[in-house]
């Protein structure tokens, strides 16, 4: 469609040219595509912890974020905790929403679709009989997650749906949640 | 063991009595155990988004955190982004570390083990040929996650290992990452 096509000057703030160049460069040098993402977590008291994110490995070398990001996590007062931060499961929902949203912006830029606003609500259902050990048949995690987008863009409803679908297809966190990942936990 | 047993006054800041009472109450009224956790996400520009966590549903009614928690997510500068927040996948690592850490404190309290310090490092490997669409056989998410705990506690190394193992067994985020969860994404 000419009106939302690549000929129109579209700016969603995503440097698609740089991403396409990176794709070419990493196709030629796949060892540079091996990343390690990290977080550190310090127990404060009770269920309250303080985590930081600062360094990661990628493009063959250690990388540092522009600043250290810090996060408090806790359980709410109805669990007899002090509610000093979002719960760990809410952090996972933030990760999912932000991953899909970044993807929507990148795909829109690549498809020449100007976004005006994008917002999402994410809901994860959980039967806490699992984590409380009441019923062994109830899982500890979410019984399902529902994401709902409101998108205002220079595109048809079908183009907008296709944007969201393509973002899902390339989303790291969507993959982490919908597929199993091996986690090993050790004591030093 | 008497030295680390329940007779000793142990305070990890976790109200285990309240949790055990909650377990009893929810065993009698399992419908109160149905929770919904939520996050809202607003696209800012490029890959930068702003998410908030404030309300959730549980114990049969709407609940509100003591305050609204806010989180910026972005991609780093090496992805031609502005690095205005942690990456979405790092949020998942924060969720995992904080979930396991809260569990360790709760289990330690229940077992009469005094914790002095608990810290964790979490590393998730990722081949970004997946998210860049270079190789369809490479998954988008982590190829594995490694959590390493350093724990100083009034307990034997075996007791500490057992603490960590029990926390894993009851962790919501560990379950979300290691097992598949259905995610539906809709456009309103």
Commentary on this structure:
The structure is a homodimer of 188-residue chains. The first copy, chain A, is α+β, with helices and mostly antiparallel strands and 188 residues long. Helix content of chain A is 30%, strand content 34%. Chain A has four helices and six strands, in the order H-E-E-E-H-E-E-H-H-E. The first copy, chain A, has a three-stranded antiparallel sheet, with no helix packed on it. In chain A, strands 4-5 form a two-stranded antiparallel ribbon. The longest helix of chain A is centred in the middle third of the chain and has 23 residues, at 88-110. Chain A starts with 15 loop residues before the first helix and ends with a strand. Residues 1-7 of chain A have low confidence and may be disordered. Strand 6 (183-187) of chain A pairs parallel with strand 5 (144-153) of chain B, so a sheet runs across the interface.
Global mean pLDDT of chain A: 94
Largest sheet of chain A: 3 strands, antiparallel
Which geometry of chain A do the CA atoms define? globular
Strand order of the largest sheet of chain A: 1-2-3
Total number of strands of chain A: 6
Query: In sequence order, what are the helices and strands of chain A, one letter per element?
Result: HEEEHEEHHE
Distance between the termini of chain A: 58 Å
Which quaternary structure do these chains form?
A: homodimer
Greatest chain-chain contact: A-B, 126 and 126 residues
Indicate the proportion of strand residues of chain A. 25-35%
- What level of helicity do the residues of chain A show? 25-40%
Structural class of chain A: alpha+beta
